[in-house]
């Protein structure tokens, strides 16, 4: 009777140094997806008033904006001068109608961040139709909202770099690295 071979990496997957095919840190879609304009990538960005990026997130072109809101805000890390923890909470969030959802407003309220987000007409209509049960409309300051163009201008400054404006990289991690290099250039 032959002696059984000791369990090796082929039989016992837990003993392998790395999983078959290597580690994967790439998204399944490589942040590429079909939207109205064809294949595309969405760049979700948080930036400060001087147009410098604070947090970046890539998704496929067809991905919605609202589900990425918390991820973008969680990526904010501003080191303090001297000692102390990095700042992770912005003073205020200015966002467009795409980010107006109950989940996003609850997220901001729990973290104590004031928000200036307009309410889309359909949400306002639903609130009116519910009558008293619809609740009070969220506060909205038109004067503060005028500064929301900062994010659009911040994206345009990043896209002054040709490699950011036209995605040449196939892999999402490499494209994100190109965007981060452009962001570093903005900070210098």
Describe the protein.
- The chain is an alpha+beta fold.
- It has one domain (28-187).
- Helices cover 31% and strands 13% of the residues.
- It has seven helices and five strands, in the order E-E-E-H-E-H-E-H-H-H-H-H.
- The chain has helices at residues 69-74, 102-111, 121-129, 142-145, 149-158, 162-165, 172-187; strands at residues 33-35, 38-47, 53-60, 93-94, 115-116.
- The strands form two sheets. The chain has a three-stranded antiparallel β-sheet. The chain has a two-stranded parallel ribbon with strand order 4-5.
- Strand 1 (33-35) and strand 2 form a beta hairpin.
- One of its GO terms (molecular function) is transposase activity.
- One of its GO terms (biological process) is DNA transposition.
- This is Putative transposase.
- Residues 1-35, 116-138 are annotated as: Disordered.
- Residues 40-182 form the Transposase IS4-like domain.
Secondary structure blueprint with pairings:
Blueprint: E1 33-35, E2 38-47, E3 53-60, H1 69-74, E4 93-94, H2 102-111, E5 115-116, H3 121-129, H4 142-145, H5 149-158, H6 162-165, H7 172-187
Low-confidence stretches: none
Order of helices and strands: EEEHEHEHHHHH
Structural class: alpha+beta
Sequence of strands across the biggest β-sheet = 1-2-3
**Average pLDDT rating:** 84
Number of domains: 1
Report the end-to-end length measured between terminal Cα atoms: 72 Å
- Count of alpha and pi helical runs: 7
Give the percentage of residues in beta strands: 5-15%
Largest sheet: 3 strands, antiparallel
The beta-strand count equals 5
What best-fitting shape do the alpha-carbon axes yield? globular
Helix content: 25-40%
**Radius of gyration, Cα only, in angstroms?**
22 Å
Protein name: Putative transposase
Domain Transposase IS4-like: 40-182
Region (Disordered): 1-35, 116-138
InterPro entries: Transposase_11 (IPR002559)
């Amino acid at each position: 009777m032959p002696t059984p071979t000791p369990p090796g990496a082929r039989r016992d997957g837990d003993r392998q140094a790395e999983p078959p095919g290597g580690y994967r840190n790439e998204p399944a879609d490589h942040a590429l997806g079909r939207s109205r304009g064809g294949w595309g990538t969405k760049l979700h960005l948080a930036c400060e008033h001087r147009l410098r990026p604070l947090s970046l997130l890539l998704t496929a072109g067809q991905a919605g904006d609202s589900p990425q809101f918390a991820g973008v805000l969680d990526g904010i890390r501003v080191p303090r001068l001297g000692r102390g923890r990095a700042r992770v909470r912005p003073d205020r969030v200015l966002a467009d109608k795409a980010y107006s959802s109950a989940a996003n407003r609850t997220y901001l309220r729990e973290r104590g961040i004031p928000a200036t987000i307009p309410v889309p007409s359909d949400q306002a209509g639903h609130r009116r139709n519910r009558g008293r049960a619809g609740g009070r409309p969220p506060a909205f300051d038109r004067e503060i909202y005028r500064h929301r163009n900062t994010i659009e201008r911040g994206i345009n400054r990043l896209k002054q770099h040709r490699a950011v404006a036209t995605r040449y990289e196939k892999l999402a991690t490499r494209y994100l690295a190109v965007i981060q290099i452009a962001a570093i250039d903005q900070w210098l």
